[in-house]
C-alpha cells in the first residue's frame, strides 16, 4: 500500500486550520478514523440498526452476528485463548474500573497494589477506590532517571507479595515501552494478579496476551483508528469468571425473580445493558484496517519517523525531552526551555499543529518529573515526514516569539 | 473568587490599562505573530501577584495554566488583579482587564466578550476547552459583579 493512498483514507486530515493544512500530531490522545470505520458505522445505522441478542427478527440477527463477529476478530487480534475472554466496554477507563470493582470481594485489608508511576489516571484512581473500600495499600513503582520503570525497585516491592500489579505497556505521556512480558512474569511469580494497560500500545504493536501472560489487558477503540465509546477488557477466563459485575441488568441476567437473580455466563455476564453496537462494528472495521497494513513496513516507518522527530527536536535547541530516547513508541514529550507548555500549545495551534499540552492525565508522573506539564507530539500510520517538518518549522517560530 | 485576604485597594487602583492605546496595536497587527507579540508585551504590564496571593482560593478553575483573579468594588466601580504562569494567558487576561477594569456592574454585564476578541483578531481564544483558561476567567469576571 503506498503512503499517499493510506493517508487519503483519513478524511479529517484533508482540512486547513487558520489557513494552514492540519498537521495532526495528537494520535496518542485519539487517532483519526479511516473511511472504512466511518462507513461501517454508517452502514449499521442505515441498514442493520437493531438491538443485539434480543429480538427474533432479521435486523437484530444481522446486528448480533456483526457484533459477535467482532469478538471473534478480537480473539484472534490479541491472541486470546477463547472468545469469552473478550468483554466489550466503553473504553480503557471502564475496563480498569470493571476489574478494580470486580476484585473487591477478593481484596483484603493490607493487600498491596503496585502501580506504575507512569500510569495515567485511569490506571491509578480505580485502584485507589478499591483500596479505600477494602483497606488495601497502594504503592507506586518508582521510575529510573530516564523514566523507565525501575526494575530493581520493582523486584524489591514484589518481595512484599502484592495482590495486584497494574502496569502500562506503553506510557501515555512519554511513549516509553515497558518490557511487560518480563514484568508480568515476575509479578506472577510473586503471586499477584496483573493488569496491563495497552491503550497506547494497541495501535503500534502486535499484541499477544498469552505471550504477555497477564491476567487482564485493556485498551480503547479510539486510539487504534476505531470509534470512541468502545473499549476492550481481556481477562484470562478463570479469573474473569470470578469478577463481580460492576453493572447489572440487560443481557448479563439469566433469570430474575424477586427472591434471587442468576447471572449469565461470560462474556454476557460482564456486558450489562445495551452495548455500543455501532462502535463495536466500527472497531471491527478498525481491526481489519490494521490487519491489512503491511505490518513490518508500517512498524519500521513509525520507528523511523519517531527517531526523526526526536532528532529534529533535539537539533532545534532549547528543547527538553522527557523519557527514554530509545525504545519509545509513538510519542515524544518535551518542553521548550522554561516556557509554559500552554503557551507553546497555543502558538502551535495558531499554525494548524495539533499536539497535546498538559499533564496528560498523568499527574503523579509529572510530579516525579518535577514539571507542571509538557507538550507531546505523537504519530500514527498516517503521519508523514512532511508533518514532522512542518511541526519543527512551526516550533521554530514559536521559539522566536517566546524566546525573543 | 477569594473571600480571603486580597491585595490592598491602592494596588487595584494602581493598575492602569489604557484601551485607546492598547487596542489599536491589536487591530493593526498584520499577522498572528505580531498579535501574539503584543499579547505577551501587554501581559508584562500586569505585575506579578505576590506569592501570598498566588493561592488556591484565588485560582480560576478550568485553566491548564495557573491563573489567579482578584476583584474589588471601589466606589461603585469594579477593579481586577490577575496573574498567570503562562505568558499568553496572562496577556489575554490583560486584554480582558483592559475592557473591564474600572467599569460599572452594568457595563460589565453588557460587555460582549466574544465580539471584543473577534474585533482583536483573537477568535478561537474563547472556548470552554480546559486548555484555555480565558473562558473561565471571562466567566469569573462576569459573575463577580
TrEMBL record, chain A:
Cofactor entry: pyridoxal 5'-phosphate
UniProt-listed InterPro entries: Aminotrans_V_dom, Aminotrans_V_PyrdxlP_BS, Cys_dSase_SufS, Cysteine_dSase, PyrdxlP-dep_Trfase, PyrdxlP-dep_Trfase_major, PyrdxlP-dep_Trfase_small
Keyword Disulfide bond: no
SUPFAM superfamilies associated with the record: PLP-dependent transferases
Catalytic function, reaction form: (sulfur carrier)-H + L-cysteine = (sulfur carrier)-SH + L-alanine
Residue span, Aminotransferase class V domain: 24-391
Enzyme class: transferase
GO BP: cysteine metabolic process
Record EC number: 2.8.1.7
Entry keywords, A to Z: Aminotransferase, Pyridoxal phosphate, Transferase
Single GO MF annotation: pyridoxal phosphate binding
Pfam families named among the record's database cross-references: Aminotran_5 (PF00266)
Transmembrane portions of the chain: none
Family of the protein in this entry: Belongs to the class-V pyridoxal-phosphate-dependent aminotransferase family. Csd subfamily.
Described function: Catalyzes the removal of elemental sulfur and selenium atoms from L-cysteine, L-cystine, L-selenocysteine, and L-selenocystine to produce L-alanine.
Protein's UniProt name: Cysteine desulfurase
Automatic annotation (TrEMBL), chain B:
SUPFAM superfamilies from the UniProt entry: SufE/NifU (SSF82649)
Fe-S metabolism associated domain sequence ranges: 25-143
PANTHER family, alphabetized: SUFE-LIKE PROTEIN 2, CHLOROPLASTIC, SULFUR ACCEPTOR PROTEIN CSDE
Family: Belongs to the SufE family.
Pfam families in UniProt: SufE (PF02657)
Signal peptide bounds: none
Domain of life: Bacteria
Protein name: Fe-S metabolism associated domain protein
